[in-house]
Design a protein that fits this description.
The chain has 888 residues and is α/β, with parallel strands linked by helices.
Length: 888
């Protein structure tokens, strides 16, 4: 019989940390903390496999589940000496979710389950009327919205109305008879639907937690976080311990190190006389742990020991939840804590230096998103202090560092809509809830009036590296009116705000931002990365500026320089851009070779200067330059007015120019007259570009700059095609080199981006010095997908709740099964002919971690990525080595 329920409590458990896939993170943590002797309230976990069964069988439970749950309820009652629903001293439980991957606040929780009209009186006699009816109110409110699906807004409205009548702000200030009256109101509203039977309550809660796995907010979070392949959520049924029993009780969330900076310090929030939901929801602004040290020194000392034990046990920073019930500490959760990008690097380096983990483990813990988010913008330090002072409107808690600039919006759905239109927005809420997750992701930053550094807004934003300020209590935020009132000012929807997550300051208006300088820990860890990886990493760069930036990020050469980008714009001398555009357009509309050559001669100096700048930036490193690739129609004007202007410049009639533009039109330009096909038809284009490359290289050589040019011919599909163009390239290049009487080595290779080229790679390798896989077009041609058009339906192919055909967008992460098979075939057959054939990749996949790891396994020499993704590729190349070592 399949086991669906695991227990923990009384110092014993049948679960452990390695069972996270079926017990979920929370269940595995509770079991492991029990196993190592920490104070954990007793309970049991219903596995993710039961959730999977429930989803796949029309919300029916596995046949064995009822008996197993009943057995564990009886075991829990025996262990605690209490019974659920008892009229004298009832056992109350929480029913919580917990998937194998952390999804903070995205699924449901129900507290104080087991209360009804009889048991609440017993609880009141044992504690107090105020406590018992506060607990009952929380349970009724949670159960009604989570299980019965009733609108929680009405309950919230009644709660706020009661507090307004009493003129109180916080829950502990509400007297017992007021809570009792509020529960009566709730029960009156939902009298016919609310179950009194604790067993019915329990099974309703279990089903609701299972069902929350497919709630919109949970599905959205998994999509945003790229979480796939999980069975579902586990359900944890745990004996309630109460942090709201008085001034000797409380609840908190803490981290074993600072999740924002990585500093080795105890970090967290604590609330006296409160339940856990009060901290996470951000309804009350909590106090720092240092205050707990003053008020409860013995408990704090015990918590410090737990902190040290758990970090050493798990060998990573832990996110802890705890409750203090009348002076007794209980641990409710431990999990690997989310952290800011800067903290990720700091912790990894510190833990390696402390001997807690190895350097290899430190490298393995970094994710590509951590590097990407490390370079998020910060407030420009050149902004005058006086301007900052005049624009400052509020000060909050700096939950997540960085700077965010955007227009204020007050609802998550508005943030999503505006962001989809290209607007930058700041999501402003009194407090966020899991339903806001879509808008939180779409926004540049998040601002809340309440909450602390462990509130929902802070935890979710930190996981995404998104600037967040919480606990900004001086802000009077009205979502209904879509306005903020602060210091006599009224800020409405659409007004610009700037958030400085470094110190928690909110500014009115749009302030300038700049890119930060990475911390020392980043440089240290990347040095470890470079000592591990085998594969080299180059950058895609079309300008000297891009080349310099790529090298700054650690690029070891250029894997793709797209020469046609130089036809459009002069990045060093923008005022000369029009001359370039005119030269290429004149060449295209010319009706004979001599006229085309004349136009290309005018373009030559511009190309030569660009190549020289790139060679200078890459002094001593290889530079792969791709000859012209796009079809000619992309370079000519298509509107009548600009065609007339061009006609006047070149001395043709407007009709002649229009006719030439019409001749260039193609039904399917991606597979049309482009790439090497242009050089077959117009060899003078190749001659000009090769001349510019070689002359620039020779000029640099004379100035003491080491140059390693690699000339790449794109879109080849046949050996003879490449042979013709390779011979033309060498004829032009060798003549120039011979005249200069200077030795210059260069390579001629090709871009493998068509299935036929990959299949015939052995033949093509007889001519080519190197292969570079252009995986953008190779993906299009292998899969029969247009990158420009597939966006309409690819989300359905990726979404596991719809078709779920692909694990990821194949234009973002390489299709290893199909496209990858063809790449491996080409590498194998190319190296049969030339064992030392240089092979790399220059498509956008060169900056995707999983694609880079595939390239390592396939035996490539290098990958090439855009400048800002070079560090990601370096990291992935190192992790590929480490993962290979773990293979059997």
């Amino acid at each position: 019989m399949k086991k669906y329920v695991y227990y923990f409590g009384g110092g014993k458990t049948d679960g452990k940390s390695g069972m996270k896939e079926i017990l979920g993170g929370k269940g595995a943590g509770l079991a492991e903390m029990t196993r190592i002797g920490l104070p954990v309230p007793a309970g049991f976990t219903i596995t993710t496999e039961a959730c999977n069964y429930y989803m796949e069988h029309g919300k029916q439970y596995p046949p064995e589940l009822a008996r197993q749950v009943t057995e564990k309820v009886r075991w829990l009652e025996k262990l605690t000496g209490k019974k659920i629903g008892d009229a004298n001293d009832p056992l109350l439980v929480s029913v919580r979710s917990g998937a194998a991957r952390s999804m903070p606040g995205m699924m449901e929780t129900i507290l104080n389950l087991g209360l009804n009209l009889r048991s609440v009186e017993g609880l009141a006699r044992r504690t107090s009327e105020r406590f018992a009816y506060d607990a009952y109110r929380r349970f009724v409110q949670m159960y009604s919205s989570v299980v019965l699906g009733l609108p929680k807004e009405e309950l919230e409205d009644r709660l706020h109305a009661m507090k307004n009548r009493l003129k109180v702000k916080d829950d502990p200030s509400v007297p017992g008879d007021a809570w009792k009256g509020l529960v009566a109101e709730y029960k009156e509203v939902f009298r016919k639907k609310f179950p009194e039977d604790p067993q019915q309550q329990l099974w309703g809660a279990i089903g609701a937690v299972f069902g929350s796995w497919v709630a919109d907010k949970a599905v959205t979070y998994r999509r945003v976080e790229h979480i796939t392949g999980l069975l579902g959520t586990a359900v944890n049924v745990v004996q309630m311990v109460f942090g709201n029993l008085g001034e000797n009780s409380g609840t908190g969330v803490c981290f074993t190190r600072d999740p924002s900076t990585g500093e080795k310090m105890f970090y967290g929030d604590f609330l006296i006389n409160a339940q856990g939901e009060d901290v996470v929801a951000g309804i009350r602004t909590p106090m720092h742990l240092s205050e707990m040290q003053k008020r409860m020194p013995k408990v704090y000392k015990q918590l410090e020991r737990v902190r040290s034990l758990l970090e050493k046990h798990y060998r990573d920073m832990q996110d802890l939840e705890f409750t203090v019930e009348d002076g007794t500490l209980y641990m409710l959760q431990t999990r690997t804590g989310k952290r800011s990008p800067a903290a990720t690097f700091q912790m990894a380096v510190d833990m390696a230096n402390e001997g807690l983990i190895s350097r290899e483990e430190a490298v393995g813990r970094i994710k590509s998103e951590d590097i990407e988010r490390l370079f998020y913008p910060v407030l420009d330090p050149n902004v005058a202090a006086g301007e900052l002072s005049s624009r400052k409107i509020a000060q909050g808690i700096n939950a997540v560092p960085g700077t965010a600039v955007g227009r204020a919006v007050f609802f998550a759905h508005d943030a999503e809509k505006q962001a989809a239109l290209g607007e930058k927005v700041i999501l402003v809420r009194r407090e966020t809830s899991p339903e806001d997750v879509g808008g939180m992701f779409a926004a540049q930053g998040i601002l809340t009036a309440t909450g602390g550094k462990t509130s929902h807004a802070a935890v979710v934003a930190r996981g995404w590296g998104k600037c967040c300020i919480v606990g900004c209590e001086e802000l009077d935020i009205s979502a209904e009116k879509k306005e903020i009132r602060v210091g006599g000012r009224v800020i409405g929807e659409g007004d610009w705000l700037t958030l400085d997550g470094g110190d928690g300051t909110v500014y009115l208006g749009e302030l300038p931002v700049t890119m930060p300088k990475p911390a020392k820990s980043y440089a240290t860890l990347m040095k470890w990365v470079d000592g591990i990886r085998r594969m080299r990493v180059r950058t895609n760069a079309d300008t000297p500026q891009d080349a310099r930036k790529g090298r700054e990020f650690g690029a070891e050469g250029i894997g793709l320089c797209r020469t046609e980008h130089m036809f459009f714009k002069d990045f060093e001398h923008p005022e000369q851009s029009s001359e370039r555009q005119f030269a290429i357009q004149e060449m295209i509309v010319a009706n004979h070779r001599e006229a085309r050559v004349k136009a290309l001669d005018r373009l030559l100096p511009f190309q030569r200067r660009d190549f020289a700048g790139i060679f200078e930036a890459m002094d001593g490193l290889p530079v792969t330059i791709r000859l012209i690739d796009p079809p000619l129609h992309e370079f000519v004007p298509h509107d009548t007015e600009r065609q007339r202007e061009l006609a006047k410049k070149v001395g043709l009639t407007p009709e002649a120019v229009a006719q030439r533009v019409a001749q260039l039109a193609e039904a399917n330009p991606m597979l049309g007259h482009r790439g090497c096909r242009l050089c077959i038809t117009y060899p003078e284009i190749l001659e000009m570009q090769v001349r510019a490359i070689i002359e620039a290289a020779l000029d640099c050589r004379k100035r003491g700059i080491k140059v390693l040019p690699e000339i790449m011919i794109p879109l080849v599909l046949d050996k003879k095609e490449l042979q013709i163009l390779e011979q033309s390239t060498r004829r032009v290049a060798n003549e120039i080199i011979k005249r200069a009487k200077v030795k210059l080595e260069y390579l001629v290779g090709t871009m493998i981006e068509l299935p036929r080229a990959a299949l015939l790679a052995g033949e093509i390798a007889e001519v080519a010095n190197f292969f570079s896989f252009g995986t953008n077009d190779l993906t299009q041609t292998v899969m029969g997908l247009s990158r420009d058009d597939a966006g309409r339906f690819l989300p359905d192919y990726v979404d596991e709740n719809k078709a779920g055909i692909f694990g990821a967008d194949p234009f973002q992460s390489l299709d290893q099964k199909g496209v990858g098979m063809l790449i491996e075939w080409a590498i194998k057959n190319g190296r049969k002919v030339k064992p030392r054939l240089k092979i790399g990749i220059c498509g956008e996949h060169g900056g995707d971690s999983e694609s880079v790891k595939f390239c390592h396994r396939a035996g490539m020499d290098y990958v090439s990525a855009s400048p800002f993704r070079v560090p990601i590729s370096r990291l992935a190349a190192a992790q590929a080595v480490l993962e290979g070592k773990r293979l059997p």
